[in-house]
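Structural prep section.
Before we set up the soaks we want a predicted structure of the protein with copper (II) ion in place, mainly to decide which crystallisation condition to try first. Input record follows.
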Amino acid sequence: MDAGPLTRRENDCRRRKFWTILLLMLITSACGSGTTAPAPTAVAPAPTPTPTPTPPPGPPKPLEGATITVTAVGFTLDTVSASTFALKDIHVYQGARLTFVNADIQPHDVLSDPPHLHTDCPELNTAGYLVPGQSRTTDPLNRIMTCGFHDHTHEGDPAFSGKVTIEAR
Ligand SMILES: [Cu+2]
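Run finished without errors. Recording the tokens verbatim:
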């Protein structure tokens, strides 16, 4: 092969080739940039702050005792206990006692359920018969159970009944 200086013809050929290639490159790059959509920037999702779990309100603490007043229209739980519990769902700690006060002008007879039998919670029967103005405290409620109580002089009247659940400490 002749390694000497290129002929004019060869030179022209090279120049044409060069410009052709350059033109093709420009076209492809133009096409490329025209059709290629910019790659979507991957947006890192903002870290979701872990919500601090609100502890569910636990059951209210059982009472150390409660006072129930008997009036002409029914039983009333003392206001402090009533702020936490309903008369029909009193919760006390094991060993607690209930105090019954007869604020009526009639006698009342506080006894354990079941009506007529009064056998479920003999501890409650200590309250028993109360003349007007009299009050009495039950024996300690030591058994883990639910005790219903009622006024025997108003047997079957829901206003003269209640329930206490004894819980372990
Ligand atoms: Cu009874």
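Observations: The chain has a mean pLDDT of 85.
Flagged for discussion at group meeting.
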